Each structure stands twice: as structure tokens, then as C-alpha cells.
From TrEMBL:
Residues 270-484 form the Histidine kinase domain. It comes from Micromonospora luteifusca. PANTHER family: SENSOR HISTIDINE KINASE GLRK, TWO-COMPONENT HISTIDINE KINASE. It is an enzyme of class 2 (transferase). This is Sensor-like histidine kinase SenX3. InterPro entries: BphY/WalK/GraS-like, HATPase_C_sf, HATPase_dom, His_kinase_dom, HisK_dim/P_dom, HisK_dim/P_sf, PAS, PAS-like_dom_sf. Signal peptide: none annotated.
Length: 484
């Protein structure tokens, strides 16, 4: 410890601080420079300033042997905090006399003594300034007077609101649902509210005095940015008024909104493609019948009418899928009822298109127990599963429908001998708009909504549906419902 305070160095350094303020500097850069000036002049091992808010304090500036404490919080009920805020405005404290966690951390860093003075505005404490010493020698009254003066200077900075306060524990800032940060001209964080920590997963002690974990948009602009973990943030920034060079940044998680926007764009793209195909065919055959009726044979007319009917059925099923997807249709709040699964499957098969019925083999045990669920929706489920099986298998291969039961569940399966499904695709196949093996959409048409609707309908009945590769080639779709 110096025998005497280096007043010439203190005055020269303080003049630099004043010039910084006069040139427009503010907030933490000025506060940190003040501590850098004071430390050698006072012969201190380190300097620190703790800013206090309604819920406690936080070290917002530190130099020398105290730099490790930068960003460290002090709870309002911490014994050290109570000690610092009570008693005389300026005091000399032996670290060993403190009882909180901070005391052991200071002692572990070799610090033995401190001179501390509260920075106040109109009797309200905004923070405390600390000169820390590693010597057991008492700093003396002269050093207490200088620390008290410097604390008053810091209090004046708070009164001018020159970029202070900086930590995010104030009631208004802490209550914000959006992440809020204040950064200096170097892009380093000077304020980080609780919502910022929650949105980014970066606690305040890892954020303060470090660059933002995302790009900073120009002042007054908005930027959507994808984080490394796949989440999307919407970021805005603006310059704070006043002589300082601080910028306020707000941000929120818009991952769900991005997903909805993507789904909406995909919905429009897919439906426009899938609707165009049957409409084009129907219009073409209808125009042919209108313009060339007399020149067509009876067989040609019947074939045209047959194609129009088939395409109209495809169009109706597609529209039904789209409307169901948009309206989140399904059993909804209707209570589950007991129904005969075997009879329901036979009725649903009878409603399938003729080309599918010709390929189906229905193998049901005679003693199949009743299921608990929503019988009317079974037709939709079976239609989608058999249509899917037919689409991904050769026209001359069979599609089998089987059923079984155990003590808790009744199940039925739709099995084909088609191209099969990769194990890594068995879950993705139920995503909306997803299609397996669809590098060429012309080979396997469809909107990618069928299995998505099936899963939602079945799960609303407390059941579940799954896909798996079939031994020997093909796919097995299995639906399991609660047993009545």
C-alpha cells in the first residue's frame, strides 16, 4: 500500500474523466475509467462499483484484482449487502468481518481490507464504491475521504442519467416480456434483463461486458436471426438519447411464428400444385366432350366420363384433407363410445374407390372385441392409409387389412408390398406436407396431409398410429385404439 495518496496522478486522471464526459462519453466507459484512475492513486489492489436496484445489487465495473467479480450479483438479503447499506456512508471494513459468500470470495483472492462508500442521490442509494487492499494495514481516514468524494462523483453521473443505471434488476426492466439489452459503442453488453437471459439461455454473468450472442441490426431497423440451436429471434435496436453512445436492443423468440409462416407458404405452394393437376385433367376431358361429342365413339365418351369422375373424386378427397387440416377437424370434444371395430372396418372398405377395393384383402378375427373411440372418423383413417399404401406400391400388388386385440388395445393394420419406408422416416412421415421418397413429386402425387390427419384423429381418441417397414418389402401402418 502506498504511504500517501498520489494526488497529482488522481487529479490528472480525473481531468481525463471529465474530458471524456465533455466529449460525449457516458455510463460504464466513464465509470470504468474513473476506477482505473483511482486504483493506482489510492494504492489499491483493485476497485469495484456495485449498482443497487430494488432486488439487490450487481458488480457493474471492476479493475485490478477485483475484475473477476464483474457481473456478480448481490442478493438484497445477503449479509454483505445489508452491511454495505447500513451504518456510515463511508467506512473501512475488514474482509474477515463480513459473513456472506462475497467475503470468502474476496479472501480467496487475497483481499483483506476495503474502503467502501455509498453513492447516493437525495438520500437514495444507487450503489457503492469499493477500494480493495491485499494488505492488513488499515487504509486510513485520508483514503476514506477520497473514496467518498469519488462515490459522490458517481452519484452525480446517476443524477445526470448518463447511461446509468446499467443492470437489469429494476422493476420495469425486469417485468418486460421481451429481452432487453443495452450495448456500448464497442458492442459490449451493459444491461441484460431477466427476459434476455431466458430467451437466449445466457445468464447475466455470462452476458455483461461481452458481445451480443447475435448480430446487432442498424439503429431503427429490425432483423430476424436464426440462432445456432435453430430458434429464431426478431431483433430491433435504437440509439439512446443523450450525449452517450449507448444503444438499446430488444429481441423476442419468433420460432413459432416462423414455423407458421413456413407452413402457410408451403400450404399455398403444395395446394396450388395438387389442385392444378385434377382440375387440368377434368377441364381437358370436358372440353373434349363438348367440342368433339359427335366425332367420339360411345367407348371414348364413357372413358372420358370415367376419367372425369375419378379426377373429381381425387379432387374432393384433396379438398376434404385441406379443409380438415385448416380447421383442425377430428373427433374434437365428442365423448368416446363403444363400437364394433370389425363392422366399422367392413363398412369403411365398402366406401373406398373401386380400384382400391379390388386390391384389398380383409382378414378379421371373428371374436374381435369392441373399440372405444369415434366410429365415423374410422372411414377417413382407413381411406388415407389404404390410399397411401396404393400410391407407394405397384397397381397389381395386394393390400392387406388385418386386426387383433390384447387386454387393453384393439388394433388394425394396413400392409402393402410397395417401396417401403426407411426407419429414419417412420416419424417424419406424419409431419404436415412431408412426403417420403418424393424427389420427383410427379411419381408420387399428393399434398402430404393424409398421415398428418390420421395421427391427429387417432390421438384425439387416446390411440396411436405408427409405421414400420414390412419384412420382405413394403410398409405396415398400425392403428391402436383403447379396448372397450
Amino acid at each position: 500500500m502506498l504511504e500517501r495518496i498520489d494526488f497529482p496522478a488522481l487529479l490528472a486522471g480525473h481531468s481525463i474523466v471529465i474530458e471524456m464526459i465533455n466529449s460525449g462519453e457516458a455510463g460504464l466507459p466513464v465509470l470504468t475509467q474513473l476506477l482505473r484512475v483511482a486504483q493506482p492513486a489510492l494504492g489499491a489492489t483493485g476497485m469495484a462499483f456495485v449498482e443497487f436496484g430494488p432486488t439487490g445489487g450487481r458488480v457493474i465495473a471492476a479493475t485490478g484484482a477485483a475484475e473477476w467479480a464483474l457481473g456478480r450479483p448481490l442478493a438484497a438479503d445477503d449479509p454483505d449487502t445489508v452491511c454495505l447499506l447500513a451504518g456510515p456512508r463511508v467506512q473501512q471494513v475488514r474482509v474477515g468481518h463480513l459473513n456472506g459468500k462475497l467475503a470468502s470470495e474476496l479472501a480467496g483472492s487475497g483481499l483483506r481490507q476495503m474502503v467502501v462508500s455509498r453513492a447516493e442521490i437525495g438520500g437514495h442509494t444507487v450503489g457503492s464504491l469499493h477500494a480493495l487492499y491485499s494488505s492488513d494495514e488499515e487504509p486510513g481516514a485520508e483514503r476514506q475521504g477520497v473514496v467518498a468524494y469519488l462515490a459522490s462523483c458517481v452519484g452525480h453521473m446517476y443524477g445526470d442519467q448518463t447511461g446509468l443505471p446499467v443492470h437489469g434488476d429494476g422493476p420495469v426492466v425486469a417485468a418486460l416480456a421481451d429481452g432487453l439489452a443495452v450495448v456500448d459503442r464497442d458492442g459490449h453488453v451493459r444491461l441484460w434483463n431477466p427476459a434476455a437471459a431466458q430467451v437466449t439461455g445466457r445468464p447475466v454473468e455470462q452476458a455483461l461486458s461481452r458481445p451480443l450472442p447475435f448480430p446487432l441490426p442498424p439503429s431503427g431497423q429490425v432483423r430476424d436471426h436464426r440462432m445456432p440451436d435453430g430458434r429464431w429471434l426478431r431483433i430491433t435496436s435504437g440509439d439512446l438519447p443523450g450525449p452517450g453512445t449507448l444503444r438499446v436492443v430488444t429481441f423476442r423468440d419468433i420460432t413459432d411464428q416462423q414455423r407458421r409462416d413456413h407452413d402457410r407458404e408451403l400450404f399455398v405452394a403444395v395446394t396450388s400444385h395438387e389442385l392444378r393437376t385434377p382440375v387440368t385433367v377434368i377441364k381437358g376431358y370436358a372440353d373434349t366432350l363438348t367440342d368433339h361429342w359427335e366425332s367420339l365413339t360411345e367407348a371414348d365418351r364413357r372413358q372420358a366420363a370415367r376419367v372425369i369422375g375419378q379426377r373429381a373424386n381425387e379432387l374432393a378427397r384433396l379438398v376434404d384433407r385441406l379443409l380438415s387440416s385448416a380447421a383442425e377437424a377430428g373427433p374434437g370434444d365428442e365423448p368416446p363410445t363403444l363400437f364394433d371395430l370389425g363392422d366399422a372396418l367392413r363398412s369403411a372398405v365398402a366406401d373406398l374407390p373401386a380400384e382400391l377395393r379390388r386390391r384389398l384383402t380383409l382378414l378379421l378375427p371373428p371374436d374381435l372385441p369392441k373399440a372405444l373411440g369415434h366410429r365415423p372418423s374410422l372411414t377417413t383413417v382407413l381411406t388415407e392409409l389404404t390410399t397411401n399404401a396404393g400410391k407407394y406400391s405397384a397397381p397389381d400388388t395386394p393390400i392387406e387389412i388385418t386386426a387383433s386385440a390384447d387386454g387393453h388395445l384393439v388394433a388394425f393394420r394396413v400392409s402393402d408390398r410397395g417401396i417401403g419406408i426407411r426407419p429414419e422416416h417412420v416419424e417424419r412421415a406424419f409431419d404436415r406436407f412431408w412426403q417420403g421418397e418424393s424427389g420427383d413429386r410427379r411419381g408420387y402425387p399428393g399434398a402430404g396431409l393424409g398421415l398428418y390427419l390420421v395421427r391427429r384423429i387417432v390421438e384425439q381418441q387416446n390411440g396411436w398410429v405408427s409405421l414400420r417397414p414390412r419384412t420382405g418389402g413394403g410398409t405396415v401402418a398400425e392403428v391402436r385404439l383403447p379396448r372397450g
